[in-house]
UniProtKB/TrEMBL annotation:
The keyword Mitochondrion does not apply. GO terms for cellular component: plasma membrane. The keyword Coiled coil applies. This is Cell shape-determining protein MreC. It comes from the Bacteria. Residues 66-93 form a coiled coil. InterPro entries: Cell/Rod_1, Cell/Rod_MreC_2, MreC, MreC_beta-barrel_core. Pfam families: MreC. Involved in formation and maintenance of cell shape.
Amino acid sequence: MKGFGQRFSAIFFILLSLALLVFGRNDNQAVESGRATVFDGFTTVLEVLSKPLETADDFVSWTQNLALVYSENERLRQENTRLRQEQIAASQLVIDNQRLSSLLNIREGHVTTIAASRVVSDSGSPFFKSVLINSGRDDGIRKGMAVVNEQGIVGRTINVGSGSARVLLVTDLNSRVPVKIASSGINVILEGDNSNQPLLNFLPLGAKVKVGDLVLTSGFAKVFPPDLPVGRVVEVSEEDGIRVNLAANLYRLNYVSVLGYDIASSPDAGVSAPETPAEQAAEEQN
């Protein structure tokens, strides 16, 4: 009985298919109308079924966007809190600096660019590191003035003619520049030894210096203004000492600037505090 039913169903669907093919080939208007009605019905059903799906999809997107907005809002709130704390700390530092400056009667120095000069020659000696520039006394240059370029400090004038000047580079054996470690404010002396990387000496007992520390001018000795870039510490060892890779490339000097640095003396110039070893070495250099 079951096999008869299956055979009957198969024969029925085959005959139905053949009938549809015959009617379709004859372009029967009723078949075309039926097809259109079926397609319209399917379209309507699909549209009705798609509405909940679109609604669900929109709800999921809205939920995701809401979570993203909440996360971004939380991040911005934390960032705002951090910036507010930094602003408060910075404002407090400004206030503290003003109070200390007032207490110590500190007067800022005046820095001027005396001349922009071209390097016309170097010493060419392994034992004397210097260059000759094409500006001199007629341009306002005097002995002992700081020489820099766009990268950092270069040296100081040691011999001045009417139209030229000799500049002793910071790498020279006779060069001593008062500097400081930017991160700690420790004052030390940058000593040239005719190598590409001068040494840091007169480090206070217990002071720590590490590779990568930024080195700036300290403003002592009244030659270099404070906070000019000097270089970074590249070596800390007991054998070779503490060496600095200079910010300025002294082997590719083309143009330099000669600076004048004037600092007002304190009203109590007659009473001075004891000098540190770094300050004493800087004074001996001058």
